[in-house]
Amino acid sequence: MSDAMMGEERRSLFIISVAAELAGVHAQTLRIYERKGLIEPARTQGGSRRYSELDIALLRRIQELTNQGVSLAGVRMVLSLEAALAQAQARISELEGQIREQRS
């Protein structure tokens, strides 16, 4: 994914009511997720929450896990493991690229 595309996904666009609707949850649920440290939306100067496309994707993932019966503590662990896996996969790809360069 290009940096421009990532920038677009990280741009904070949605107010809490819209983010809740897009994620299929109640706005109060988003506040609970924030208090539990599962998500950290951007804030305006006035303190209003703003959610990005990446935040919406994360909220949908949290909702998917909770719908499967995973507790919020379990969700935190799953998200942490998924992030660690993504970092490891990125590092593997980087190393594979270096190996290809050295072989050519």
From TrEMBL:
Residues 13-81 form the HTH merR-type domain. SMART domains: HTH_MERR (SM00422). Keywords: DNA-binding. GO terms for molecular function: DNA binding; DNA-binding transcription factor activity. Signal peptide: none annotated. InterPro entries: DNA-bd_dom_put_sf, MerR-type_HTH_dom, MerR_fam. This is Unannotated protein. The lineage of its organism: unclassified sequences, metagenomes, ecological metagenomes.
